[in-house]
């Protein structure tokens, strides 16, 4: 599993925008920037939609006031699902990146197999990344939801 002090792996994501499908790389997103990244097991799922993402939406201005350039939400859902989820949540201040094939999360060592429930998915976690290097990493254990909350990350900034 990735650790504090490690550089993020070099991968491409998928992102649906008004200009069509884009494939930003890790370097495009993180190089020279301070980024808060949080991952959810699945868009439209209860904890993700009712608590995790809404917390980051509500605290986006406070997080960015701490010197954060971008807040990123990622999941192993496809870019169409991520885009629809962003739209339904009115999450304009968050950048949604799809890791549909799981290359990013597998390289981080942050996947879990949920079996018939949904297959391989990302673990729930949040990190602070400075110029591509992980400075804070909070991975949830089991079905907990505390370490990756927006309030927890804001306090760590």
UniProtKB/TrEMBL annotation:
Belongs to the peroxiredoxin family. Prx5 subfamily. PANTHER family: PEROXIREDOXIN, PEROXIREDOXIN-5, MITOCHONDRIAL. SUPFAM superfamilies: Thioredoxin-like. CDD domains: PRX5_like. Residues 2-157 form the Thioredoxin domain. It comes from Alkalimonas collagenimarina. Keywords: Antioxidant, Oxidoreductase, Peroxidase, Redox-active center. Thiol-specific peroxidase that catalyzes the reduction of hydrogen peroxide and organic hydroperoxides to water and alcohols, respectively. Plays a role in cell protection against oxidative stress by detoxifying peroxides. InterPro entries: PRX5-like, Redoxin, Thioredoxin-like_sf, Thioredoxin_domain. Its EC number is 1.11.1.27. This is Glutathione-dependent peroxiredoxin. The keyword Oxidoreductase applies. It catalyses: a hydroperoxide + 2 glutathione = an alcohol + glutathione disulfide + H2O. It comes from the Bacteria. The keyword Disulfide bond does not apply.
